[in-house]
Amino acid sequence: MIRLALLGCGEHSRSSHAAPLARYAAQNPGDIELVAACDLNLDRAKEFCREFGFARAYSDVETMLTTERVDGCVCVMPMERIVELAVMLLERKIPCVIEKPLGVSPQEAEELARVTRQTGTPHMVSVNRRFMPYLNQAKSWAKNIGPLQYVRATQIRHARDEPDFIWSTAIHVLDALRHLAGEVVGFQTEVHRQAGLSTVWYVVSLRFEIGTRGRIEVLPTAGMVEESYELFGEGFRARVVAGSGPQRSLQCWRTGQMELEKHSSKAEPEDLRNGGYDEVVEFVRALKTGERPWPSVEDILPSARICFAIAESVARQTEAKG
Predict the structure, then answer these.
(1) What pTM value is reported for the model?
(2) Where are the alpha helices (DSSP H) in 28-81?
(3) Among 57, 202, 261, 284, which is least packed by CB within 10 angstroms?
(4) Which structural domain, as residue segments, surrounds residue 178?
């Protein structure tokens, strides 16, 4: 039985990691044991034990790792501590899930990548869009028809005016398009900051290695929460919509006709819709077979590099105008 611990018991950890871990344990008895939950707030860790079935609560990671025999650890830290705790686990040879982003600067991201190469510790980065069922169905459906000519993603949020949005959150949509169309060989960024906008909006044009073109629209303060992904090719189009709550859909058109249409129900748990559960499945599969989990820091590093480059470009433009 694989013994798993959870490090960090905040709200994101609750919905995106603890819930799917508990679901997997319930649906696959004997596969995993949720041995410990750790948080600086011991009461919150105890709450996770009661709600999700972790055996013991800790408020200190050193105590947890010394006391428990852990085969894998899901690490969900605030952005400024992601690299610190990930490096600790990697250097102790503890297979781990690392939350995005890969640090708060390009230097931190590169350092994390260096440590993964140096230690060789199995790990995966939590980028749940790569595991979203509808997005992967669209990818598979399109692949069976013909080459992608164009991909597009739109990320809409409400009141997200934090300056780090492009590399802390929008990395999701960029990485999802890399998942769909492969490596990016060139990009250009248009920045919108018209009167009335509380923060920067972005339009990013992409060129992929396979010849596909793409576009990302990042609108952090547009009054709602939604993401959409579109895949285009000769004679076909697929569209995936993901948002807050149950509004998730998949529509595929071919030669002028709707060929496939799916909508998620309100009763379907969020972690089954957003890829969180399938992410757990991948981590456990890798630990059981001894294979490397996917995606690794090296897989996600190109996405981080592009997002940090966009942020640096915008900062330079702002300084020049100032």
Answers:
(1) 0.94
(2) 42-52, 61-67
(3) 261
(4) 129-270+305-321
